[in-house]
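The aim of this short unit is practical: by the end, you should be able to scan a pair of folded records and say something sensible about each. We start with the first protein, listed as its amino acid sequence and then its structure tokens.
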Amino acid sequence: MPEDQKPLPVSSSTPPQFPPEQRRLFREVLDLLNRSGVPYVVSGAFALHAHTGIWRDTKDLDVFITPQNVDRALHELGSAGFECEVRDPVWLAKAHRDDFYVDLITGMSNGVITVDDSWIERGRVEVIMDISSRVLAAEELIASKLFVTRRERFDGADIAHVIHGTRGNLEWDRLLSLAGDHWEVLLWSLLLFRYCYPMHSDYVPRAIWNDLLGRLQNEISYGHRKQPFRGSLIDSKMFAIDVKEWGMQDLERAFRERREPKIATCALPLNKSATTKEEDSAA
């Protein structure tokens, strides 16, 4: 079924009924990565459940991994009989068997955020499909969703649920560091949380509100004329007219071009395919 015809997920605490073959495949992948010593951390539906209690049906196992370790993971998976491809060298490789996929994610599709060793080290130990694994920490989970802001997919509700699910017990300095120069996107997410949960505004520390709102006021007063157009980082399709017809800077292209290291297509096992498609939205 085409993506645009699939029913949208409805938030629920009811666990999905994973088919036995999917459970076996996910267990095999996690056990393989554990035994091979490839550093990884699980994100996606399993990380969302760990921090919020929300379950989401999925055919994909999302694994965050550093760009430097993708080649090792692909060779291990290829040797185990998976079909492998580099879908986008900026951020995504895939391995699949039958209808089930493993996504190897090294950052955001717009090139703004890259997974490094600290993302793996900060993951907390969880049991997934009976296999001991590391699950993405709440701060990195939020950061991974900051730019999932496209018309066809928006993860703002997930961020709000992570803040609510953790009751704001986050390492806020870490989150600010991960957002970096893109702190306004974080503030946008926090305002959405506050709008949805006004009775829990205190889950975001007053110091964080003061810091970000103070930065915003300062930028509005003094700095906005110096800043480039950034719409393509949010949604390159919806803001295409700004770049292609109005002559504004394509910041997404600039970030993607300077993202290093990229996933090397030579990392693929022999007789496996390599593509450089950008048809997937961010994870």
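Turning to the second protein, read its sequence before its tokens, just as you did above.
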Amino acid sequence: MGNAREARFSQRRRGSLRISCEAMHVDSTEMLKELRIDRSREAEPAGRGVWIAVALAVAALVGAGAWFAFGRMPSYTVRTALAQPLAAQAASTAVLDASGYVTARRQATVSSKVTGRVVEVQIEEGQRVEADQVLARLDATDARAQFDLARAEHDAARAQLADLRVQLAQADRDQRRQEDLVAKKLTSTQAGEDARTRVASLKARLAAQEGQVAVQQRGVEVARVALDNTVVKAPFAGVITVKAAQPGEIVSPMSAGGGYTRTGIGTIVDMDSLEIEVEVNEAYIGRVKAGQPVEAVLNAYPDWKIPAEVIAIIPAADRSKATVKVRIGIKAKDARIVPDMGARVAFLEDRSAPAETRALPGVLVPASAIQSVGDANRVFVFVDGKAQARAVKLGQSFADQRQVLDGVKAGERVVLQPPEGMIDGARLVRDDAK
């Protein structure tokens, strides 16, 4: 019995120990599972975060680029003008070519009328002057002294004239009294005759003094002219091309004193009188007529064709050259045309002759829209509120317009007087109301 009870007790004990061990194993397993890191669940949020960070960085870069492109791009308020197509014109044929120079029909070397020392010069080369404008002044000390003396002598002569008039009035009264006394036989006839003689004498002296006053007046006028001659004035409106004298030098209307005396103050040219003078071979002079249209080109501006016409054929030939001079009037006045410039002219067919009509290539744009960049030229075209820089090829000049052969199309808007620093792509705001 005792053995059997011990056997059952021992069996129950082993069973409880096995259950305890199993429970402990289960608890340990659960605890280990809780401590284990789930890599599959961790990897998914980590990858998603990287992509979110990359997207945010790209968005920031795009935003910064947009801000740099649009926020920092300068904006300009500009005026624009349409590029105009060139109108068709008659194609004239040149019948003769010649070369010559620009000359001025009205040109003068201005000098003083008297010899004197220059104290002031009021001109510079290139200065525009008007008629009667003061160009220089000479030392007027002597001339002013002569003028003051002449005026003083004139005043003295007038004073003497006034005194004689007073004496004559008194002599007239004395004569009337003497005549009354003679009539009443209260005085001698001799006294009456003396009174009449005195009146006649004073009248003669008065007439002589009036003549003297007139002479003195002329003397004052002569002295005034001499004083005015110390001021050199412009004889007509024009441009100063030469400044020949300086303060302190002696000028004279005639050459004197060797190289120490100037004969002029400066040279003035009437720019409105400029024309071209060419020499035509006498064998071809028959092709030239007065009023004939001419196309002139200056050597300094070979792309600028200037409209002109024949003024006259000078009726004299140069025997040594076998040429005849022809005067050509310039129709387009421009500051670029100056005296002594070389020019080439083409005598065109008579206006009455029919001419073939042709269209000129390119478009016309204002000259203020063209910028020079080194040896090239460019314009800024207004396109969708932005500046588009384009290189252009230029042609002829037409007053304040330029012919653009390539780079701009008719109807496009070009920016006038592009602001300094404008770049391609700059934002623009049109203000064509000014």
